[in-house]
Amino acid sequence: MLINGWNAGRLPAQMYHGNYGLMRGNSPPGIAAQTKVLSNPSLAMVMQPVRLVTPDGIQLAVGGGGAFTAVADSKVTVNLAIGPVYRFQLSQIPNEGLKQLYPSVELLGRLHPPQGLELDFPIEIVIDKEDIDHALEGRMVTKVIYLEDSQVAMPHRHQQGKQPVLDISSREDPMRAAETMGRPLAILRLGSRVPTLDASDSGFGFHSPMPVILPEASPQNELGPIQRLPNELPESKLLESELPKSFGR
């Protein structure tokens, strides 16, 4: 589930584990992730698969190491670490061909699927047409993706390629809203800011390394085939809940 707030944020969902105190949705990129790692050092640089999904036809590029690497249209699955902030590039936007957007993603937590099924349970972050329209209008879209608490979950049917979203106002904090619904996992920020010199500038990319691009799950079923990730992923535990949701805009 997502919580959205104009000039504030949106959130996606997955269990409530207490208040995050200093972590706020309107903090500068990286502050929330660093606060989370300081409170739980065992999470530092833990790897988690993340799938970024955009409307059909949009060209995605993954940033890191001072460069952008183009990938297949509309979606990409990457292995991200908890702590750093990662930059992506959206181009070939319908009716806005020459314009580009540069969303950022920071991880606050991870999922715990059965060992060997890590690729079947990525944290999914969906950027929809409404998000892009708001960004092109000069607004700031913030999505906080969270793991839904089964005790307060709202009944809904999950549709492939879509993510339930709860919009909030600019006066509300999307992180606080997400905490009432579950455990925040990631923050997506999408605005109209572009680099002043070169999009490959390492400062604009938060000095983050290029993430590993992962294979997509088989379309034969929604969960995909059983696949194993490289050994750098920590040993997995039991699956905590279902798929992420978010709050935002």
Structure description:
There is one protein chain. 10% of the residues lie in helices and 29% in strands. With 249 residues, the protein is mainly β. A hairpin with a 2-residue loop joins strand 3 and strand 4 (67-70). The two termini are 13 Å apart.
Number of helices, where a helix is a run of at least 4 consecutive DSSP H or I residues:
3
* Number of separate strands: 13
Could you state the order of secondary-structure elements as H and E?
A: EHEEEEEEEHEEHEEE
* Class by alpha and beta content: mainly beta
Low-confidence region ranges: 5-22, 220-243
Distance between the termini: 13 Å
Return the average pLDDT rounded to an integer. 78
Helix content, binned percent: 10-25%
Major sheet? 9 strands, mixed
Classify the beta-strand content into a percent band.
25-35%
Oligomer type: single chain
Outline:
globular
Q: Radius of gyration in whole Å, from Cα?
A: 17 Å
